[in-house]
Amino acid sequence: MTIHVLSDQLASQIAAGEVVERPSSVVKELTENAIDAGATTITIDIRGGGRELIQVADNGVGIGADEIETAFLRHATSKLSSADDLWAIRTLGFRGEALAAISAVSRLTIVSRVRDASAGVRLVLEDGKIVAREMVGAPAGTVIAVENLFDNVPARLKFLKSVTTEKRLIDEFVTRYALAYPAIRFRLSHDGRVTFQTAGSGATADVLLAAYGPDTARQLMEVATLPREPGPSGGDRRAIDVHGFVSDPALTWAGRNHIQLFVNGRMIRDTRLTFAVIQAYHTLLPVGRFPMAILFIDLPPEEVDVNVHPTKVEVRFRDEGAAFGAVQRAVRASLMETAPARGLGSWSPGPSGGWGAFRPSGDYSDTPSAQLDIPWQLRGPEQERSIEGAPSASLSEAPEHRLPIMRVIGQVGAAYIIAEGPDGLYLIDQHAAHERILYEQFLAQRQGQQAASQGLVASATVYLSPSQTRLVEEQLPLLASLGFEIESFGPNAFSIRAVPAILTRSDPAGALAAVVADLENETPPLKSETEALVIKRVCKTAAVKAGQSLTREEMEAMILQLEACEVPHTCPHGRPTLIHLSAALLARQFGRT
Ligand code: ADP
Ligand code: MG
User: Closest Cα partner for 403 from 160, 196, 569?
Assistant: First the structure.
């Protein structure tokens, strides 16, 4: 084999492949350029999922006729001049690769006029070469049309997904940028039909409504900027600001791709930060379900390296731990403390009015599972009466994620409690509900102290395998702090002298064996997580089971206690504790509406 230098054309096609993988990457790069150009209106027209045409028009600063050819050279940019600038990047672009890359793999037409020029300039490029140039009348700003994408790169064409997939990815990119830049008016159309548009009102809430419709938007809660933590020297420890929106735990998705992160206005992918969001929902979501989040992480540009990947979707934080902690704290605080985003519930479609039209073009297999209509916002009539006379504004100060007041009607199948509330019927899973109640009571009583313990009249003996024995020995201090009094009783046996008080009526040996089985399955790395695991198991063991019939008094007591819970809608393992059949749903089902 002889070694030779690649032809210019081949070299630029290879380089282009890194930046423009697929139609949606072209949309992303052109949109980013428009945003960098200070546009307040960005109009995107797509045909054939981007293969036939991608056209992005903006009203930004435009490119001067004397510079337009330069813009298409590789590594030509107006956004960066020295190496130092790399650490202070405030624009989305900086590598100067996109226009060169896109023009190398398509037929590209650009028309651009700077505001104070008398005419605009029109340039046509094919396979990266200029084939036409003329001065034209044009509005201020830039229009770039990309046709025949990848026609000259058959290898790439083969890997393109279906038109539907490409459309979906384009929708995703555009919605995300619209969320990050609510002051810009976006309009996206596919094959001549407008599928998404925003008003450019500046309110992220308006864009959420346009992007996801009122049902989902209503279930998003605001993540507010937390007060900064003072550092050791008294000043700010890290100036990381996290704000945005996260979904109510009742709204879940099958995948984590609805967790959208932006760093300094740039859409990014980051598995660790995504995990930080998921972890903030700990015990609130069913296993295998994920929340939606739109989070804006803002920090000084020198704290983050954006030059990690040609597509600029990966970044590196100087202090990754600080970013992780900031995201997790902000989301957790929102879940625990703030009520569902105020006013979201009462929104009208807003001036953009486009939400009805926007439907993701792909078939999302992971549609939201919010049909259960769990009443986070409801307050019982009694509660409302008790604050009668108070100014109506204070109504919204009440914790809105609590349950409404419910009246017990009876029990079905010795497993579920039926209750009536202000808006229809509630079916409560007695076991899951009791688990939740015991879990919160346990945590509250404990507050870092020794948990209440109950001595056994006759000590119980539990026999374990050698490896289980070692596990128990390792965890003896933890088990003791939770109320177990255990002593070694021969080589692989333990004698149980006392158990956590809530286990008084359970089989002590069975309870310890269950704890050991859990620990065998997974012993989490952190002590606090191991503790949570054991507490959950203890509560599960102590909770009433399905099959136990309850007296009316017992059911009423349970409902009262569930109403008092911080997080009444799921058991500590994340399964729902209740199902709500609203009056409206019942009326619909009976054909009354
Ligand atoms: P980068 O965005 O990394 O600078 P690009 O190849 O995307 O590189 O663009 C090259 C240059 O062309 C930009 O730096 C900018 O000066 C100019 N440019 C591109 N698109 C636009 C636009 N829509 N409006 C104004 N200038 C633009
Ligand atoms: Mg660019």
Answer: 569
pLDDT at residue number 372: 32
Model pLDDT, residue 567 = 87
How far is residue 485's CA from residue 32's CA, in Å, rounded to a whole number?
Answer: 63
Asked if 536 and 542 touch (Cβ cutoff 8 Å), the reply is no
Pairing of strands 259-263, 293-298: parallel
Q: Which atom of ligand 1 is nearest to the CA of 142?
A: 23
**pLDDT class for 108, splitting at 50, 70, 90?**
very high
Q: For ligand 1, is residue 99 a contact (CB within 6 Å)?
A: yes
Task: Return the ligand 1 atom nearest residue 78 CA.
Answer: 14
Helix (H) or strand (E) holding 246: strand 241-247
d(CA 534, CA 476): 12
| The pLDDT value given to residue 575 | 86
**pLDDT score of 242 more than 90:** yes
Question: How far does the centroid of ligand 2 lie from the alpha carbon of residue 98, in Å?
Answer: 5
Which residue in 145, 169, 148 sits closest to 28, CA to CA? 169
Give the separation between CA 242 and CA 262, rounded to whole angstroms: 10
CB atoms within 10 A of CB 136: 11
Percent with pLDDT over 90 in the chain: 39
Helix (H, G, I), strand (E, B) or coil at 461: strand
Task: State if residue 60 touches ligand 1 by the CB under 6 angstroms criterion.
Answer: yes
Q: Is 562 in the pocket of ligand 1 (CB under 6 A)?
A: no
Predicted confidence at residue 401, as pLDDT, reads 61
